[in-house]
Recover the amino acids of this structure.
């Protein structure tokens, strides 16, 4: 693979997925795309990239994007975003939405489903407080391949042991051969959809809580700003955004601000609070 | 420094688990069966026990029942670590007072996650 090939690939990934890949990541490109070469029966990465340049094979383009995006996840990853959900956000919205009895949650980079299913299990544990409520969990990812795995809800022994308390494994999973499958009532709580975050997502509507963790780190600065601004638009005035531990809104947008107490939690900034008074209002004072 | 007792008849498992637990800043001691494990607990009650199920002399299930009867024996967090990966075994272990359950084979991430789950990492 020549330097020009690598430059083309970086630009291609940036346009298609927002992934900001630098030329130092040549090793990552080589290891992630080797299986794609095999699938498409091409000998070298240069040949594969020539196929991308020709622009005539949407399947090849999709496979390259999916192979290069990171899908690592596990149940209750980092623990604190789920403690926050259970101890802060759920009680907050049980009160704030008591009239509508409606709660919408979005996992914006759901990968193989562990994050939305972790939330669904917590909601199931809180079922007695949610009687009569309509709770929606929308889970999106750029990769249709990982979404298929997510929908099936089948995980291997390693996957169910990273972060998932044994009591929840026992309660919500059954053994299917060598694997473990999450219960149908938990699967039915999550609506999986393919979505590329760098494209328009206003059609999904607004969400009370958005989990968008460990995805912005792969974007360059202007893309982060653009995505954060649109995430803010998808929140109501009292909505909550959760980002990954290595991510922030600071220096990227003024539409969101960090919660003073809870790390990783961001809130929508009220426009009235940041916009200067209009000249007319100022004249009346 | 927290103290973890590994009760497992496999020297390989004891060696691998010891290395990971020491990296997690545990003081580690070992016993090759349940009887020796109980004897170690009578001398010094550990903060945690990483416990195999199938062992000669006394299996992990019996060990757990007898440990919980000892003075101070309800205190240690017990994490089963076994090839028994059937739901019935997991249920029995939890009913008997186990705090967590690892299905072999395991890796460092799983061991750390399970010890975090019981509040020891």
């Amino acid at each position: 693979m020549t330097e020009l090939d690598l430059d083309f690939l970086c630009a291609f990934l940036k346009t298609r997925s927002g992934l900001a890949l630098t030329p130092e990541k040549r090793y990552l490109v080589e290891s992630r795309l080797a299986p794609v070469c095999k699938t498409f029966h091409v000998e070298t990465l240069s040949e594969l990239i020539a196929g991308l340049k020709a622009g005539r094979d949407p399947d090849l383009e999709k496979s390259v994007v999916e192979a290069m995006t990171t899908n690592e996840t596990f149940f209750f990853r980092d623990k604190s975003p789920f403690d926050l959900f259970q101890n802060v956000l759920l009680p907050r919205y049980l009160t704030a939405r008591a009239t509508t009895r409606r709660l919408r949650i979005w996992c914006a980079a759901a990968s193989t489903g562990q994050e939305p299913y972790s939330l669904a299990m917590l909601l199931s544990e809180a079922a007695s407080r949610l009687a009569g409520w309509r709770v929606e969990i929308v889970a999106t990812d750029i990769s249709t391949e990982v979404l298929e795995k997510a929908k099936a809800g089948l995980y291997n022994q390693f996957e169910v042991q990273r972060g998932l308390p044994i009591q929840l494994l026992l309660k919500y999973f059954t053994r299917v051969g060598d694997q473990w499958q999450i219960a149908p009532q938990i699967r039915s709580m999550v609506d999986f959809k393919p979505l590329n975050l760098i494209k328009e997502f206003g059609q999904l509507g607004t969400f009370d809580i958005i989990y968008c963790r460990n995805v912005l780190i792969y974007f360059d600065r202007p893309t982060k700003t653009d995505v954060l601004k649109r995430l803010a638009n998808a929140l109501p005035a009292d909505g909550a955004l959760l980002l990954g531990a290595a991510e922030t809104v600071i220096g990227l947008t003024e539409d969101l601000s960090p919660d003073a107490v809870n790390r990783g939690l961001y809130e929508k900034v009220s426009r009235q609070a940041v916009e200067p008074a209009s000249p007319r209002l100022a004249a009346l004072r | 420094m927290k103290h973890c007792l590994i009760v497992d008849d496999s020297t390989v498992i004891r060696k691998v688990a010891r290395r990971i637990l020491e990296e997690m800043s545990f003081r580690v001691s070992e016993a090759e069966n349940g009887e020796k494990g109980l004897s170690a607990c009578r001398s010094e009650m550990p903060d945690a026990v990483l416990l195999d199920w199938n062992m000669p002399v006394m299996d992990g299930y019996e060990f757990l029942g007898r440990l919980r009867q000892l003075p101070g024996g309800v205190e240690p967090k017990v994490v089963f670590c076994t090839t028994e990966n059937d739901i019935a075994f997991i249920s029995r272990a939890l009913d008997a007072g186990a705090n967590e359950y690892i299905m072999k084979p395991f890796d460092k991430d799983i061991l750390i996650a399970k010890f975090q789950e019981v509040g020891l990492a």
In short: Chain A touches chain B through 14 residues (CB under 8 Å). Confidence is low (pLDDT under 50) at residues 281-285 of chain A.
